[in-house]
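tool_call: predict_structure(chain=1)
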Amino acid sequence: MVGAGPGSPDLISLRGWRILQRADVVLYDALVDETLLADCPANAIKVYVGKRGGKPSVPQLSINQLIVEYAQQYPIVVRLKGGDPFVFGRATEEIDAALQHGIAVELIPGISSALAVPALQGIPLTDRQYSTSFWVLTGTTAEGNFSSDLHLAAQSNATIIVLMGMNKLAAICQVFAQMGKEMLPVAIIQNGTLPTEKIVVGTVNNIVQLATEQQMASPAIIVLGDVVQLRQQMQAIQSNVIAHLP
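tool_result:
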């Protein structure tokens, strides 16, 4: 079980990359950069089992079955998942399916997009002046709604990161508006770490309009919190450092 990281292929862990070089079979997700597959052995079997909201997807039970079937035939089967498999990646379901059939599982975590994507845009999730904690929530539960914990998170001063939430953006913002946080800074980052990355920054009361104007779409991460306003400061510092590099 390998986490491929947030998007860019060079953000996979060294351990994950090394196991890909030995893989007999790779079952990979929609958010995995397919250039990683070039590092697999030439005779490795590569199976796309992508799952994307609102699009035809391989059912989870079918993925579980494929894992078991391949692992019963080949020594090294890699389940390659975007980000970190244990952050809304349904990794436990797939691991459980393997273990129930006596298949040994090695876990290789990945960099979660919830952490890396805001950071690479100069948005720290914590800052002693603005936020001393953060919540990572899903915008799409098994029932198709955003996490009910969002109402609790919106009452805090924590940074809120919502994954898979673009289809619920207006409803998410409404929760914060009801808490009197209409002016809370918000950033939406689409295709984080990739050449096609886009970002729009606003506040709770205007981010829906801005996202519509900029045609923001999934996959994207929503960051709500005062730390968003540090982005310009962080980028200015970074630009100054780069300008003075030899």
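agent: The mean pLDDT is 93. Proceeding to next step.
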